[in-house]
Structures are given as structure tokens and as C-alpha cells.
Design goal:
This protein has 240 residues and is α/β, with parallel strands linked by helices. 62% of the residues lie in helices and 10% in strands. Strand 4, helix 10 and strand 5 form a beta-alpha-beta unit. Helix 3 runs antiparallel to helix 4 and helix 4 crosses helix 6. Bound molecules: manganese (II) ion. The site of manganese (II) ion has 5 residues, from loops.
Length: 240
């Protein structure tokens, strides 16, 4: 039998559709909290030939692995549970070997997933690909980033899933940033989302003009110091 993939992210996506992001987040946290002890108990029992203890540990690890999409770990635990139930201590000791490696892989995948679940989501609306790359590089270690090249795409998508904050380029082809802001603000779920204007225009009246138009903050491009961008973002997200 070919081993199944170590980790199946679609399991979590499916669960999120059914029960929501908060519940998935809790399931992942519970797994990360309890699975290390279950893995350790199973290894100890398997190596010392304690079939009853191994069967219990394998059974509980198996069901928690399934819930988070840890397919290979689920199969391994199932195999160990069968050996334990058959009181086959030699097979237990032999087949417990890959457990550590499998669990380490799943743990790092889930930790990454947990970070993306708890990270605030920032939408970047910017037509210049270089600027999108720079903005993403500055922000992606701390935030989940979604990008749009133009206003209409952003308006359609963000109305369905509101971000925590929006970075909006003023100079966009077609609808400019001020018009995009007006349309975003007209959408119920986006009315209160902080929006930062990104503009290359170093005009002295830009700031007051943009704040008057309804932007919460203004950041001039090029961004020379990351604090110029991260400062206003943290302030606006903290003030929410
Ligand atoms: Mn632009």
C-alpha cells in the first residue's frame, strides 16, 4: 500500500466551511497541545511492549489525527492499534519508528496553519506588481495578505470576505483609489474597515484631501522605512 500524503489541508478547509474558522482554530490548538503527549505515550508503550497502554494511546492519537487531516499519522496510529490489540509486541516496536518523523511534519504544517488562522488579513489593492511584491515582503510574516490589481476585482471579492484592513493605491487604472474607497464604504461589511491610502504623489495637500475623502491614514510611496507602513497598520488594527 502506498502511504497517503502526510497532511491534507483540504480536511481543515472542509471543517472550516462546516463549523467556521474559530472552531477549526480550536481543533488545531487542541491537537498541538495534546498530541505530543499522546505520541510520547504511544512510543513508550510500544517500546516497552505494554500492549494495553499502546492500544489506548494509539486509539486516541488516531482520532485526533483524523480531525486535523494528518492522514499518514492516522494510518500509522491505526496500524499500531491493530498490533497492540493483537498483542504483537515485536510488530509494535518495529512499526513505531516512523511515528516521530510523521508527527514532526504534521506539527510544522499545523503550526503554519494556526498562524494563518489567527493572523489579521490585509487586502492590498495596487496595480504595480513591484509594489505588491514589496508590500507583501514587508507584511507577510505578520499578516495574511490578499492582493488585487484593480478596484472592481477588490470590490467584488472583499464584499464577500471582509479583511481587517485595506491598503489602497490612489493611482489605479480605471477607477482611481478615491472612487474605489467610496464604493467599498458603500458595502455594509466594509463600512468600518480601516483603509490606508498609498500614494506616490508627494503633494502637500494630499494628506488632508485623502483624510477628507474618508481614508483612515496615508502612506507615501516609495516606502523607505518599514515602520512608515507598519506603524499606521498596527495603530489602526489596535484601535479597532
Ligand atoms: Mn498605481
Amino acid at each position: 500500500m502506498t502511504p497517503r500524503p502526510e497532511f491534507d489541508p483540504s480536511t481543515l478547509a472542509r471543517t472550516e466551511r462546516m463549523v467556521g474558522r474559530r472552531a477549526v482554530n480550536e481543533i488545531v490548538s487542541l491537537f498541538l497541545e495534546h498530541a505530543p503527549a499522546e505520541v510520547e505515550a504511544l512510543q513508550r508503550a510500544a517500546r516497552s511492549g505494554s500492549c494495553d497502554a499502546a492500544a489506548r494511546a494509539a486509539h486516541s492519537l488516531r482520532s485526533s489525527a483524523f480531525n486535523v487531516g494528518a492522514l499518514r499519522l492516522y494510518d500509522l496510529a491505526g496500524e499500531l492499534e491493530r498490533h497492540a490489540t493483537a498483542r504483537d509486541a515485536a510488530a509494535l516496536e518495529r512499526d513505531v519508528e516512523p511515528l516521530d518523523g510523521s508527527f514532526a511534519l504534521v506539527r510544522s504544517e499545523l503550526e503554519r496553519h494556526a498562524r494563518s488562522l489567527t493572523a489579521k488579513r490585509i487586502a492590498v489593492i495596487e496595480d504595480n506588481p513591484d509594489n505588491r511584491v514589496l508590500t507583501r515582503a514587508l507584511l507577510e510574516s505578520r499578516f495574511e495578505i490578499v492582493e488585487f490589481e484593480n478596484g472592481p476585482d477588490a470590490i467584488a471579492a472583499l464584499g464577500e470576505a471582509a479583511p481587517d484592513l485595506i491598503l489602497l493605491d490612489i493611482s489605479l487604472p480605471g477607477l482611481d483609489g478615491v472612487e474605489v474607497l467610496r464604493r467599498l464604504r458603500a458595502i455594509d461589511v466594509l463600512g468600518e474597515v480601516p483603509v490606508i491610502a498609498l500614494t506616490a504623489h508627494a503633494m502637500s495637500d494630499d494628506r488632508s484631501r485623502l483624510l477628507e475623502a474618508g481614508f483612515d491614514e496615508y502612506v507615501a510611496k516609495p516606502i523607505l522605512d518599514e515602520a512608515d507602513l507598519i506603524g499606521p497598520i498596527d495603530r489602526l488594527l489596535g484601535a479597532k
